[in-house]
Amino acid sequence: MALTGRAALLAALGTLPVGIWEPSWTGILAVNGPLVLACACDAALAAPVRRLGLTRSGDNSVRLGETADVTLTVTNPSSRPLRAQFRDAWPPSSWEPGTEVAASRHRLTVPVGERRRLTTRLRPTRRGDRQADRVTIRSYGPLGLFARQGSHKVPWTVRVLPPFTSRKHLPSKLARLRELDGRTSVLTRGEGTEFDSLREYVPGDDTRSIDWRATARQTTVAVRTWRPERDRHILLVLDTGRTSAGRVGNAPRLDASMDAALLLGALASRAGDRVDLLAYDRRVRALVQGRAAGDVLPSLVNAMATLEPELVETDARGLTATAMRTAPRRSLIVLLTSLGAAPIEEGLLPVLSRLTQRHTVLIASVADPHVARMASARGNTEAVYEAAAAAQAQTERRRTAEQLQRHGVTVVDATPDELAPALADAYLALKAAGRL
């Protein structure tokens, strides 16, 4: 059988001897001497690892679920060509499970005095900052018998941002906003709306909108038109305590709350309102204030990227006091938290009046769709017990929501897929009613 590649080379050097021979020190040296010499020559011709120059460039941020490309530029200043295998190490959550080995390993040849680029494609599975670890290089000689190995620290950070999946609802909510804003034929009147213009009366108009002074100056009846007030203050409050760590589907409740907050923030900033963000459990985790309309959404996304649920009970008194300091004037405070009976009754309700006296309060909570499926399950004893438990949980949530509503709070309770549009609709309803 013919030998090819390394096997042929090793046979030629004597490590695959043909026939029978009597081992002796002389024979061993005679047979392996050429191999030792070949390895020594191969080692001498392998490019040194420590002298290589490595720099990074590429993406600094990426939305969760998308890909980021980070380029590594390798410069070979030595007098020997580089034939190497690279391992570009990142945290395990930088790739989907099972793809790390293929994505992080590269082969590259760099001629003497030249530079080459290799690209590592990341697809993170968690939000937050992903820090590059070390780059390990294995430099081979021309025969591939010997390799030098070493590592370089080449810092780089990729920030993984929230995915903002509810962005798809923004066009329809903006269309509704334009109707409220008087850019279409639909004009509204509410307690807190602003005067817009005069037009001729048509049957069906509210007679309270007739402008009698303007009517006296012309031959037709004139009515006032109104538009919702602008420049209102919206404070988005994210509860990052232990209840936000509960998983609904494949993600924590906090992620669904952030997605809803992003949609509302984008909508409110387009409506001309000022939007701030506060994330709190027992201390302030994130604070965004005083951003211009065009900078609101990027600032919110960047602040939310590194937020993680904290396994502590939220300090409702501290949260209320911080919200009052952040919003000293009348505002719409949107609190994204749990509707669990214990956290609301023992934590929020005793201090809620401090908020409702000065502000309009809206509470949004993530409901678990699995509970609704359990409530409708039938067929065997286990399913009936699950349905009873789910019905009890739903009753408790409704009772908690009713308690909040009696204090003048608007409550939105919806599943992760429905929470963002439902919260946006609640904001538009408050704006249409002139309650902002």
TrEMBL record:
Residue span, DUF58 domain: 198-374
Pfam families: DUF58 (PF01882)
PANTHER family reported for this sequence: BLL2464 PROTEIN (PTHR33608), SLR2013 PROTEIN (PTHR33608:SF3)
Name of the protein in its database record: DUF58 domain-containing protein
Upper classification of the organism: Bacteria, Bacillati, Actinomycetota, Actinomycetes, Kitasatosporales
